[in-house]
Amino acid sequence: MTALRHGSARRRLCAAGLSLALALSPLRAVTLDELVTASSMTPRRFANYFEDFQYKEFTEVQDPEVFLRTETGNCQDYAILGDYVLGRRGYDTHLVHVRMVGQIAHDVCFVTPSKAFLDYNLRAYYRNLEPSGPTVREIASKVAEMFKSNWTSASEFTYTYDEGVKHMTFTVVKTDPPSEDPDHRAPR
Amino acid sequence: MKDRTVQRILGFFVLIFAVVVYVAVDSVRNINRSMSASDWVNHTHEVILEVNGALSDIRSADAAVLSYVVTGDARAKAECKEVFADLDEQLGVARDDTRREPAQHDEIVQLISLATARADFDRAVIAARKSNDTEAVRALLTGDAGVGATHEIQALVVRITSEEMALLAERDHASYDQAQTSRVTVWAGVALDFVLFAGVAWLIWSDIVARRRAAAALQEANEQLENRVRERTAELAAANETLRSENLERRWANQTLEHQLKYNQLIINSINDLVFVLTKSMNISRINPAVVHLVGLEAHELVNRPLSCVVRLDSGAAGPGSPLVDSLSLALTEGRDLRDQPALVEDKRGQKIPARLTIFPLRDRDKVVGGIVVVQVAPKAN
């Protein structure tokens, strides 16, 4: 009788805990403010927010709130948002645009302290950060390897939501000698 | 002679391994060269795409500007902004792509200059339209109609594209050559390895044949040796049998001789006459028991003593001046018998016993080596 009473109390405690967890869990999409102000934001935690996001091609960069609300976007939305959020949390980040054969292009956000880049294609995986060297050539080679393709050129660029235009900082061409790369001559 | 087959086979395998390693290293090197050539092909494609994309952007921008001029729609203006950004990126990439190719780079710079001028013109039209300055818009568009700026850009793009196509063909040819070199290297390596494997197979085969031949020769030699051993064994067995027969015959002969000797000895021992065997110098070498019985001296007391100490010829019978021993010695020397001579036997006590003496010379082939003296004692009168 005592054992039964103890078992019933344990079940009630478990049910209450589960209800509390469900109540606290975010049932709605995360907002840009929540990302920017979230405590102890890291690149990995940032990537975790996007594991259920869908892929859709857009000609232009989406507004970040639209991207987060619809949970639909592409590599440039994700990389630019990563650059925006992590940049505001003090991380040194770089946006890289990699061009591959067949008019395929891919954007990633390299996080210098993590020595890895954020890639929208990895958002659903446990390892959502891809380790890489810091140069654009190394990042481009890694991205092309993931696509099982050849890259032709890659550019580091900047983007602000206010202006809405990509500005290419410099471009690395695969056929050029690596010693001639702009970021090789002036490493980060 | 030391067998070097294993060393040769090992040598072949070392060669095969070296060929495989060389082919692998050379193939990897060729693959890298081929990838590099492929990168140049891709690079050329990108330049062509970027340049043609830029031309497309310029046309799109012109269309968007005209649309904005006609409709005043803000979306057309926004489209212009996007197209200009895209144009900027494409020309920037084309410029960076050709920075190590001076001729192409100059043309791209020229294209950028023309495109920038065109973009400035479009921005001027937009600005005029935005300020509703219809006259300015008309003046700009009218002025542009005779300039043919777009045609100039298009002609330049076509020229750049044509040159890039030529480069593309050249680079593709280099890529093909690399692939062909890889194929030739791999097939040559395979052929060489095949030849080396054939060499190894031939070496092993010839070694097996030589070993079989040697084994057959060894077997034949063994068989010949066994035959010779068999023949020699048979010969030895036959010789042994003959020897055994001869031994048996010799033993039988010896036994016969021994029996004969015993018989003779028995005969001599059984007779009552005294028998002395003498040396050539007339010394006694043997006697029969009748001598011991009559004289009273043992054989060892008589052997090697002169006959004259026991027996003498009777001097009365021999005549004066003819000593006994001399007569007997003379007979022996001459090798003749001396028969039935009167003699005296002196026994141990000095008593003289009359007797008759006969001497026979003993011969070894034709040479007299001694003599036999037989003394017949006259029977005692009753």
What features would you describe in this structure?
Chain A has 188 residues and is an alpha+beta fold. Chain A is built from seven helices and eight strands; from the N terminus they run αααβαβαββββαββα. Chain A has helices at residues 2-24, 32-37, 43-48, 64-70, 75-88, 136-147, 182-185, and strands at residues 54-55, 72-73, 93-100, 104-111, 116-118, 129-131, 151-159, 166-173. In chain A, the strands form two sheets. Chain A has a six-stranded antiparallel β-sheet, sandwiched between helices. In chain A, strands 1-2 form a two-stranded parallel ribbon. Chain A is globular, with a radius of gyration of 21 Å. The model of chain A is unreliable at 1-7 and 21-26 (pLDDT under 50). Chain B has 382 residues and is of the alpha+beta class. In chain B, a hairpin with a 4-residue loop joins strand 1 and strand 2. In chain B, helix 1 (5-71) runs antiparallel to helix 5. The two termini of chain B are 107 Å apart. Chain B has helices at 5-71, 74-97, 102-130, 134-147, 149-270, 289-295, 299-302, 315-318, 324-334, and strands at 274-279, 284-287, 311-313, 338-346, 352-364, 367-377. In chain B, strands 2-1-6-5-4-3 form a six-stranded antiparallel β-sheet. Residues 318-322 of chain B have low confidence and may be disordered. The chains are: A alpha+beta (188), B alpha+beta (382).
